[in-house]
Amino acid sequence: MLVDLHCHTRPRSACSALEPIELAYLAAERGLDGICLTEHDRSWAHDELEALRAAAPIAVFHAVELTTDLGHILAFGLPSTAFSASAREVAAVAEQCGALLYLAHPARDGLLRVTRETVEYFVSVESVNGSDSRLQNIAAAGLAKGFRLPGIGGSDAHTADEVGRAATRFAGRLTSDADLLEALRSGAYEALLLG
Ligand SMILES: [Zn+2]
Ligand SMILES: [Zn+2]
Where is the Polymerase/histidinol phosphatase N-terminal domain (predicted)? Predict the structure, then answer.
């Protein structure tokens, strides 16, 4: 199952030009089996998410991309009450509740902000980002080798053109956010650039 683990839609991500349902249909057309909404620093309301899921032609998962002092973090399974710009605070809650934190596009800024201690907050990095350059993704894939879980892949789509450029392949069929979290925790997945 191919799932794009990094997507932005409007109006929740102000920088995105994509309507949620438009994203879902474009992703389906381009061969994806699922998308994971990762808006900047905010979550979707439960009823709105369920309405999108009912209308979408593929599976829709939900996570978040947090803007923090250590860079952008893709957080899976994190309650919205724990959203914070302090990576330390986010990591403390993630540890308690079993959420998984990945450092997003770790080579984009050219400078890793993590230290020997704070690198422990992350289970891995986003090793394939569809909006990054080839060299940045090579660097990110190299970084992922140092973590306990493999790197994840996502398009980081903000426009129609960017949809479907990258994804994460899972062996099984995932139907819920809980399934996605479990599959990530198992480490049985692979980040892919789809072109
Ligand atoms: Zn980002
Ligand atoms: Zn993003």
Answer: 3-70
CA of 65 to the centre of ligand 1 (A): 7
Structure confidence by residue, pLDDT tens digits, 174-193: 999 999 999 999 999 999 99
Region label for 126, one of left (φ > 0), alpha (ψ between -120 and 50) or beta (otherwise): beta
Does the domain made of 2-193 have the CATH classification 3.20.20.140? Answer: yes
Residue keyed to tokens 């984009």: 108
CA of 38 relative to ligand 2 center, distance in Å: 7
Q: How far is the CA of 105 from the centre of ligand 1 (A)?
A: 7
Map out the domains of the chain as residue ranges: 2-193
Average pLDDT over residues 83-102: 98
Peptide bond into 20 cis (omega under 30): no
Distance in Å, CA 31 to ligand 1 centroid:
24
pLDDT in tens, 40-78: 999 999 999 999 999 999 999 999 999 999 999 999 999
Q: From ligand 2's centre to the CA of 146, what distance in Å?
A: 22
Asked if pLDDT for residue 125 goes beyond 90, the answer is yes
Q: Which of 177, 188, 192, 187 is nearest to 76 (CA)?
A: 177
